[in-house]
């Protein structure tokens, strides 16, 4: 099971995701509410995996992804996305995202994706 | 899938923040402020709201936010413009969202009824005259790949789960992951079509890799991906058209962003947490109990005079004081919380009345106890609506009287010694004292003679009398059957005062003076007929001695003459029982009106915690709360408002 950093600008989504991941036996090592915080927490915590929201204040998820990948090319990042954001997710994938989960989150799908990305 | 009740509170709270952000940025857009930032902010908040409401299963709200997000996505890319009618539509949407949030907070589920037609309108706006650059952006051009360099080549037949929400992204992830362990020589259908999601059913990938079958199997059986077939392909075709995509090598990341991110982190030191207000109230109660019990301990210590005990008690005393101050500070909230709602109100009323108003807010950072915030909202709304509705004139009228066509409305807040002062000032028509004079007579509030002799201040003071409204007609905006008398009562219930200054033709200014907190006040402790009671020091003018002869009967009441002033005298017999008349009087004041009460003794001045009467005791006229001073006695606090 992995050590996971959750990045989302709302506490609501973070809590939701935290509970799903926790139920899958993962260890939530930290949370960040924007892209700036995401990079800082990543460097501080070195998690196995990051779940990254795309639309966030200050630095958005794509930019944060790029920054984290620049700092650590082996970083495993899963994008949190919603229907209609295909283009953004593609951009993220091209920038090195390893997977994506779609809101509203379905626990089995989230856990499956996390497991697959962690084991890859 | 999860217990939604557990999330409801958090959902409502964060949704309200996003809702407010949308409203304020819509207004900023309308004012011509930084357009791009405002559009981005609205888009972001609409998107966030959509995601959160979808997670809670509030479909109606999700659909509405989704439509708003779509519209702003078009605006962001420059394919639509923000028009006045769109702003109106969007503000109506935010109203609908607010109603939904209210419903959700109350434990319900919002229905499509409210939002269905709005979604249609938004869609119509998004769809009309869709420009042609809708073609999915495909930024990779096919280019010939290098020839296979002798590694084994495999053919993979893969299917994406039909229930996948973004099968194009799935396909793209798969191809990208495969590329990490090999070279994709070709795909059927083409990679371009796969990445655009233009495929049904399984597809084939020809890949050259030396990672081995197992590695390929692992990658090709990821989330929502199933590997149907994997076979070793014999020959390497000479030249195969392949799409390489334009994935950035991981090393080449724009440097400035990283630096920006690191730099911003250094400035981010404040960490906030959210605390349930009820918990804060409970904590406040406990701190108050501590304060009370400290007082009791001090009295006990005084009786015994143990040095060590006194020292320890001293230390505790200091900690309790610090704790109390800290607690008071935590309960403080910036007035912005309620001010932020007002620009919208000003806009709506101004639009409705065909007026132009520039609204300034200053001092939103001024803090007030959160317990008073709720009570302040309605009075402020009322005064602001009034100012636009009745105060500020239409542009034509203003131009005719030599004023700029755009009226100005200024809301300022500031801390002044022990009080918070809030002023609402407009440069509108003001109130004509002559009209007040006539109205005072016609409403029977003054005799014609009294009215003729009344000073301007007295006339203006009539505005706060029940049923006295200067507007000729009651409008659906200001006149909701609530007058300034209610505003005044509300402010007084917050232990505040309200004053109005008006200059005919020049404008009107309301001044609210409020204590920053209601929980701890200075009181004068007195004995009335052998019983202790507390009087808020803010209501006490002086303590005077009088002689029985100075007391006169006027009709049913008694009055005394004190330094050329006749003051009604209350003995509070119905509260404390009949007693021998004492000669000590406390003169009380509330809003320029005075009276005095007879007391046995004045015991001194003290800072106390006022607790509201419990629901069991109910409202008790004349008593605003109780306090428990050091000795553990329960002492009523007089409500001077009801006496003067």
Automatic annotation (TrEMBL), chain A:
PTM-bearing positions, type 4-aspartylphosphate: 53
Q: Where in this chain does the record put each Response regulatory domain?
A: 3-118
State the InterPro entries in the record.
CheY-like_superfamily, Sig_transdc_resp-reg_receiver, ST_Response_Regulator
Which key words tag this protein in UniProt? Answer: Phosphoprotein
User: A Pfam family matched by this chain, by name?
Assistant: Response_reg
UniProt keyword Glycoprotein, yes or no: no
Q: What SUPFAM superfamilies does the record point to?
A: CheY-like
Q: What is the official name of this protein in its record? A: Response regulator
Upper classification of the organism: Archaea, Methanobacteriati, Methanobacteriota, Stenosarchaea group, Methanomicrobia
């Amino acid at each position: 099971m992995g050590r996971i950093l959750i990045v989302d600008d709302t506490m609501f989504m973070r809590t939701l995701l935290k509970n799903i991941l926790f139920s899958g036996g993962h260890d939530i090592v930290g949370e960040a509410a924007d892209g700036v915080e995401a990079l800082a927490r990543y460097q501080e915590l070195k998690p196995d995996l990051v779940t990254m929201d795309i639309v966030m204040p200050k630095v958005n998820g794509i930019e944060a992804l790029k920054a984290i990948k620049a700092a650590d090319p082996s970083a495993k990042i899963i994008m949190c996305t919603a229907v209609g954001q295909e283009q953004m997710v593609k951009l993220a994938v091209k920038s090195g995202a390893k997977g994506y989960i779609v809101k509203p989150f379905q626990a089995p799908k989230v856990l499956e994706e996390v497991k697959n990305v962690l084991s890859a | 899938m999860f217990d939604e009740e557990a999330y409801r509170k958090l959902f409502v709270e964060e949704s309200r923040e996003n809702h407010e952000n949308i409203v304020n940025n819509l207004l900023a857009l309308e004012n011509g402020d930084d357009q791009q930032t405002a559009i981005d902010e609205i888009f972001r908040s609409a998107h966030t709201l959509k995601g959160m409401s979808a997670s809670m299963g509030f479909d109606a709200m999700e659909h509405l936010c989704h439509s708003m997000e779509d519209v702003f996505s078009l605006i962001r890319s420059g394919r639509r413009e923000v028009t006045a009618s769109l702003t109106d539509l969007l503000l109506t949407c935010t109203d609908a969202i607010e109603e939904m949030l209210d419903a959700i907070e109350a434990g319900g589920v919002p229905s499509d009824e409210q939002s269905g037609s709005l979604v249609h309108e938004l869609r119509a706006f998004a769809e009309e005259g869709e420009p042609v650059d809708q073609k999915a952006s495909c930024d990779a051009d096919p280019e010939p790949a290098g020839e296979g360099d002798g590694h084994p080549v495999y053919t993979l037949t893969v299917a994406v789960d039909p229930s996948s929400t973004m099968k194009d992204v799935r396909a793209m992830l798969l191809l990208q992951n495969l590329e990490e362990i090999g070279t994709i020589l070709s795909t059927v259908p083409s990679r371009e079509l796969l990445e655009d999601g233009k495929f049904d059913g399984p597809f084939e990938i020809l890949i050259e890799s030396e990672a081995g079958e197992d590695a390929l199997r692992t990658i090709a059986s990821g989330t929502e991906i199933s590997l149907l077939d994997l076979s070793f392909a014999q020959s390497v075709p000479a030249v195969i058209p392949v799409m390489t995509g334009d994935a950035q090598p991981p090393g080449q990341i724009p440097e400035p962003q990283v630096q920006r991110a690191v730099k911003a982190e250094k400035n981010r030191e404040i960490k906030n947490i959210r605390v349930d207000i009820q918990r804060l109230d409970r904590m406040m109660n406990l701190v108050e109990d501590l304060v009370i019990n400290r007082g009791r301990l001090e009295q006990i210590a005084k009786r015994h005079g143990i040095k060590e005990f006194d020292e320890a008690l001293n230390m505790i005393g200091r900690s309790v004081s610090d704790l109390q101050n800290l607690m008071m500070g935590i309960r403080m909230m910036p007035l912005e919380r309620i001010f932020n709602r007002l620009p919208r109100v000003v806009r709506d009323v101004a639009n409705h009345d065909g007026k132009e108003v520039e609204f300034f807010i200053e001092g939103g950072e001024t803090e007030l106890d959160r317990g008073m915030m709720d009570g302040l909202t309605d009075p402020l709304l009322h005064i602001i609506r009034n100012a636009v509705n009745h105060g500020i004139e239409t542009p034509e009228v203003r131009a005719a009287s030599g004023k700029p066509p755009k009226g100005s409305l200024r809301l300022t807040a500031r801390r002044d010694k022990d009080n918070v002062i809030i002023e609402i000032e407009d440069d509108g028509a003001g109130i004509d004292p002559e009209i007040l004079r006539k109205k005072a007579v016609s409403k029977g509030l003054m005799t014609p003679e009294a009215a003729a002799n009344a000073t301007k201040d007295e006339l203006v003071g009539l505005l706060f009398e029940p049923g006295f409204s200067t507007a000729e007609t009651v409008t659906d905006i200001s006149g909701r059957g609530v007058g300034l008398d209610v505003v005044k009562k509300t402010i007084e219930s917050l232990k505040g005062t309200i004053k109005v200054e008006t200059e005919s033709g020049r404008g009107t200014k309301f001044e609210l003076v409020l204590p920053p907190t209601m929980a701890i006040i200075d009181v004068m402790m007195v004995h009335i007929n052998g019983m202790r009671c507390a009087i808020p020091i803010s209501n006490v003018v002086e303590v005077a001695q009088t002689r029985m002869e100075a007391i006169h009967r006027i009709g049913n009441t008694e009055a005394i003459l004190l330094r050329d002033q006749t003051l009604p005298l209350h003995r509070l017999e119905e509260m404390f029982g009949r007693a021998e008349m004492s000669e000590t009087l406390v003169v009380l004041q509330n809003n320029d009106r005075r009276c005095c009460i007879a007391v046995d003794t004045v015991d001194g001045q003290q800072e106390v915690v006022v607790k509201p009467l419990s629901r069991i005791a109910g409202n008790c006229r004349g008593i605003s709360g109780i306090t428990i001073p050091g000795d553990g006695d329960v002492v009523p606090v007089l409500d001077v408002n009801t006496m003067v």
